[in-house]
Design goal:
single chain, about 400 residues, alpha+beta, 10 helices
């Protein structure tokens, strides 16, 4: 294995600059979801397919999701397979094709849809999120294909749609309509989060509960609160009670930062048009990130108690709407994918990996909930969704070497 990996490693080092071509091609296609004013990912996907075929990766399959909102009426999900010596498990590298809008164009120093290279950095929308991980997987695969080396284990590259706005037409569609795509034995890597050293492996996520609270009271003149039921006052007190649930669900989990569950009031809608009104209608939202030791049903029970108490105290009616609800089991630290990735990081880069959890949601959650162990990892500066987003060319090579090591490991 050592001799084979040295050959792969050297090829990656000598051909890393060529991957700038792929970043440039991908960035030039504005793969925005309809929710973000775009027409989906098809142009970008076709350009990627052309690149893969031209470079010898020709075993391509589509698992496209119907979507009447886009011109092609589908959203692309593409799988490239590089068959290995063993079919006992596959090594998946799962990256998404879609990107987020550029935001305020005046905040960019370069054209966000044209890659600009400077001091080892590639600037442009999507170059890090998630094209860096996509390109690392492609570069690792090409190190085998171009040298006619058979991987010890099959490599599968998944290029997904729709990650930025919920994965309805991407990973979630695949898990619902193509349940046999993954095997429980597969090693599933999602290079869509990490740190600048490449030492943190995400194996767990907090449960997510986004809530909208609509309080309905009775409007009256500002000088006669006795004739009304102040919906905003009731809502404010409810917001404080929701926030105080942090003291009830107080168990800490050191995988996460912060280590405790959070219940935070966030968005607030406008209610009345003048200062001299007692509002009879009020809406606010909460973003709750709950440690996986607690179920969402436990949280729902406590929230219902809070709502009932405020309704009775203020003589109002409160409707609760769940905007998002996600629960996720953790990938065990001794799962093969976690151990093999940690081993590869140690062997290739002499870095001792650390296992962590995150407060945000990733596509790993859906996989884990169905019994597929998945990890989120890459080496990046976390400039995603920012103006002047960039990816380090050396990080693409760094992660490609790690993936190549996993694919030629015969253990």
């Amino acid at each position: 294995m050592a001799q084979e990996f040295n050959q792969l490693n050297q090829w990656i080092e000598e051909n890393t600059k060529s991957i700038v071509e792929l970043e440039t091609i991908l960035t030039s296609h504005k793969a925005l979801a309809p929710e973000n004013g775009g027409t989906g990912e098809w142009e970008k996907c076709r350009a990627l397919e052309e690149y893969l075929k031209a470079n010898g990766i020709k075993n391509l399959e589509h698992f496209d999701a119907p979507d009447e909102r886009v011109p092609e009426k589908t959203r692309p999900n593409l799988v490239a397979t590089i068959y290995g010596n063993n079919e006992d498990y596959a090594i998946w590298v799962c990256a998404h094709l879609d990107v987020v809008p550029v935001g305020n164009l005046d905040s960019w120093n370069t054209d966000p849809w044209t890659v600009t290279e400077k001091d080892g950095k590639l600037f442009g929308r999507g170059v890090e999120d998630n094209q860096q991980g996509l390109c690392s997987g492609v570069l690792a695969a090409l190190s085998f294909v171009k040298q006619h080396i058979l991987p010890e284990h099959t490599i599968k590259l998944l290029f997904m749609a729709d990650e930025e706005v919920g994965s309805t037409y991407g990973m979630n569609y695949l898990l619902k309509e193509h349940k046999d795509l993954f095997k429980k034995e597969d090693l599933i890597l999602i290079p869509d989060g990490g740190d600048s050293k490449g030492e943190t492996i995400e194996i767990a996520e907090k449960n997510i509960l986004w809530l909208e609270f609509h309080t309905m009271g009775k409007q009256s003149h500002g000088s006669r609160p006795d004739l009304g039921h102040n919906a905003m006052l009731a809502g404010c007190e409810l917001a404080l009670k929701i926030n105080s649930l942090e003291k009830i669900f107080d168990r800490k989990n050191e995988l996460f930062e912060p280590s405790h569950s959070t219940f935070q009031p966030t968005k607030k809608l406008s209610n009345v048009d003048g200062v001299n009104f007692i509002p009879g209608d009020d809406v606010f939202c909460c973003d709750c990130r709950i440690n996986p030791e607690y179920s969402l049903n436990q949280v729902r029970t406590e929230i219902a108690k809070c709502v009932k108490e405020i309704e009775e105290k203020h003589s109002v009616k409160i409707n609760v709407k769940e905007l998002q609800a996600e629960e996720s089991v953790a990938t065990p630290q001794d799962a093969p994918v976690a151990e093999k990735l940690a081993g590869a990081i140690k062997n290739v880069h002499n870095i001792q990996a650390k296992f962590i959890g995150v407060g945000g949601g990733t596509v790993a959650a859906g996989l884990r909930n169905l019994g597929f162990n998945a990890v989120v990892w890459s080496t990046l500066d976390e400039t995603c969704h920012q103006a002047n987003e960039y990816a380090l060319v050396k990080n693409i090579a760094c992660d490609a070497k790690t993936i190549a090591y996993m694919a030629c490991d015969g253990k």
